[in-house]
Write a structure and sequence with these properties.
mainly alpha, globular, 434 Repressor (Amino-terminal Domain)
Amino acid sequence: MARSKRRANRQAEKPRVGRPVEKRNKLGEWVDAHGWTRQQLAEALGIAFGTATRLCSGARRPSLEMAVQIEDLTEGAVSVRSWLEVPAHTKN
């Protein structure tokens, strides 16, 4: 019985929705702050969901064209210049 109480208390404290976000960059923070999903971002930019996820986590840097598109979409909150900190995508 004590075990089920702990489980109930843990669930009441913080509802879990999806996997936790481990790291985010400016784009990821903007998406979260505006209540968007990664899927909505992907559709708005015309890219795959996985690509949107990698862009939001900083695992991938967009092309110059995509960076301009992101800057326009975010109304300058995520500038083209902000992507300079993200390492270039390399194929191994």
